[in-house]
Amino acid sequence: MAATIIDGKAVSKKIRQQLTEDVARFISETRITPGLAVVLVGDDPASHTYVRSKEKSTVKAGMYSEVYRLAATTSEAELLNLVDKLNKDNKIHGILVQLPLPGHIDELKVLNAIDPRKDVDGFHPMNAGNLFIGQESFIPCTPHGIMELLADAGVSLQGKHAVVVGRSNIVGKPVAMLLLQQHATVTICHSRTADLGAITRQADVLVVAVGRPNFITGEMIKPGAVVIDVGINRVDGKLVGDVDFESAQAVAGHLTPVPGGVGPMTITMLLKNTLVAAQRCR
Ligand code: GUN
């Protein structure tokens, strides 16, 4: 039987409707409009597309949006100055510096400079550390969105074997922590894992975030598994995931499509974190 498709667009729409109501209520109660500043350095076309989408979605949810589009030649000191200014700006409750940054800028230095209370990406070491020890923190948006999709699909994680393919700070490591919090048994695999298929075939829940088109195929999936594809790769002008959709669909129990799976959830969680940041700063 073909896999049930997890519709990230529909789940995202539902959450954003609720969020828009929550934002309106917050504004009428406090006279404070939650504000998000997005900083983009350079000319990467995909990053420009994501940032445009973040800007539009912020305004649509009734929040205040500022976007800084800086030249690729911007120095690290100039970027740190802007972050410092945004840290002190009362209109701004959330700050997001779009990654990747140009090679001459130390990414960690910039992320460390963001006030952890405004770090709606959840990338600051304080938020990453709090997630690690199970304390309240801003949860990175894509992992947060994945957990919402699993919850919406009614996937129970307790005692299940969750396999995460990819060990990035943005997705792989934080999603592994969140799955662990939900009592899954978690294995993290990566590009140097030996006999990857032997491990992915044991997964009740398989999360793939490696950035390689069609990397996981149907024969690497356990029949009936829940498969979450985080990849967004452009191949011959078409967007494809890290999972080969056709062969996976025939084996998996649930599967997220690309586009329309995890992608729409990332911005939704960013908006949610921005409202939380505004609520916390009252
Ligand atoms: N680049 C790709 N994904 C992300 C994300 O979630 N946040 C930021 N800041 N940059 C990204």
Radius of gyration over alpha carbons?
A: 19 Å
Number of helices: 10
Bound molecules: guanine
The total domain count is 2
Largest beta sheet: what is the strand line-up? 1-11-8-7-5-6
Examine the secondary-structure arrangement and name the CATH architecture of the largest domain: 3-Layer(aba) Sandwich
Average pLDDT reading: 97
Major sheet summary line: 6 strands, parallel
List the helices and strands in order.
Answer: EHEHEHEHHHEHEHEEEEHEH
CATH class value of the largest domain: Alpha Beta
Total beta strands: 11
Tell me the CATH topology of the largest domain: Rossmann fold
Portion of residues in beta strands equals 15-25%
Helix content: 40-55%
| Structural class by SSE content | alpha/beta
General description of the model:
The protein is of the alpha/beta class and about 280 residues long. It has 2 domains: about 80 residues, Rossmann fold (3-Layer(aba) Sandwich), CATH 3.40.50; about 120 residues, NAD(P)-binding Rossmann-like Domain (Rossmann fold, 3-Layer(aba) Sandwich). It is about 40% helix and about 15% strand. It has 10 helices and 11 strands. Strand 9 and strand 10 form a beta hairpin. Helix 2 crosses helix 10 and helix 6 packs across helix 10. The mean pLDDT is about 95. The protein binds guanine. The site of guanine has 9 residues, from strand 4 and helix 6.
